[in-house]
Write a structure and sequence with these properties.
Layout lengths: L5 H19 L2 E11 L4 E10 L6 E9 L1 H8 L12 E11 L4 H12 L4 E9 L2 E9 L9 H18 L3
Antiparallel strand pairs: 1-2, 2-3, 3-4, 4-6, 5-6
Helix pairs in contact: 1-4, 3-4
């Protein structure tokens, strides 16, 4: 048995809350990945889901990452980076089979929903005449265990954003 780090605790909270929604039928989990990079000693977890009331071409992926510096800061309390304990978080909204004229309005809606205090980026992928749009919301700060309740609100807000994006 191992002593879980902040990353593990936040991962369990995220995963558990989303699986609760999956069990009630409000959300559907599409994919889940849990990686440990032994070459760089980092962790990455992502879970992709959709709201069951939206079209099947719309989903969200929440990604949690911790690098060597965050892990070391927690495991070695005398380490000079103890203020680095936590993980980085991003949310990617994936809109498949989009018409080109709707791409900008979806991006603007995500910026409106998530505010201008976060970095919002957009990737566009065109295959034949269909576009896939990925809108990434980056939280430009470390997320800590003190914010576990905020993670639950974040999932709820992500679900609401999916519902809003379904209108585009």
């Amino acid at each position: 048995m191992f002593d879980p780090i902040a990353f593990d605790n936040m991962k369990v909270v995220l995963e558990g809350h989303i699986y609760d929604f999956d069990l009630t039928g409000e959300m559907k989990i599409i994919d889940r990945n849990d990686w440990m990079n032994l070459a760089k000693f980092s962790r990455r977890y992502d879970i992709t889901f959709t709201d069951t009331t939206v079209t099947s071409t719309l989903s969200a992926k929440i990604t949690l990452q911790a690098n060597l510096q965050q892990i070391t800061a927690e495991l070695q309390p005398a380490h000079p980076f103890t203020n680095e304990i936590g993980a980085h978080l991003s949310i990617t909204f994936i809109l498949q089979k989009q018409k080109k004229n709707k791409l900008e309005s979806a991006y603007e809606q995500v910026v409106k929903q998530w505010g201008n205090r976060r970095t919002v980026q957009q990737r566009l992928i065109k295959v034949e005449n269909e576009w896939t749009q990925e809108i990434v919301v980056n939280f430009d700060r470390l997320i800590t265990e003190d914010q576990l309740e905020d993670l639950l609100d974040l999932i709820d807000h992500t679900q609401q954003t999916l519902i809003v994006l379904d209108q585009y």
